[in-house]
Predict the structure.
Amino acid sequence: LFGGSKTGQAETNYFEHCQCTHMTEKVGLMLRPILERFRAYSNYPTQLGLSDFAKRNRDGTAAEALSFPWCLVLRPGEEVRRIAQGVDERFQGLPENDGQVNFIEQILALPEDCVLYDIFAVPDPDAALVGGSIARRDDSADGERDGRSSLIRIGRMWNTTRFFRSERENQLFFKHQKKEEDYDLVPEWFERIRPEHQLYGSKEFERRIEQGLFYDLGPVESSDAT
């Protein structure tokens, strides 16, 4: 449900870059027919809805009120990047000498209780625009907006055990929720959509994160506090 570049990346480290629930609609001539084919299913073929994720509380019970962002961004943790890079160097990139899939080897090398991703939220379409336009202002000394309102770090994703392979017979399916379902629940978002919203994806949000252009709700020091 998260992706990066539509055409992949030069690096073979799976955890090198951010991933996002939105991809841009910037595509080459070869991919345009595919994009238009997807548009028959949704007017937003490179964006996924998030409201289904908000229907359940952490304990699995039904949520009384839905609260979800316009977009989510995952930034790989530093330890995960380092470990995956070590595995990548051991196999000397793709293709691997032992015939295994590289990113699976990287995932299997991760220890328990490490930060897989920092989770960033783009709360609404306005916040995706450069400088953002969230209603509340920055709590800094001067009280002026400084461009950090486009992203909010809301938590971290931890693994509580090491990863292990599942049997081939075990099938896991993920629903790709249409963006229209989010707009049906929050119609004011639809009214604020502009053409430039088609150009926001993992690369743009990764750039902002690397430049520190985000609010941080505070550190999460262990998986127990997630």
About this structure: The radius of gyration is 19 Å. The beta strands are 19-20, 71-76, 115-122, 152-158, 215-216. The longest strand covers residues 115-122.
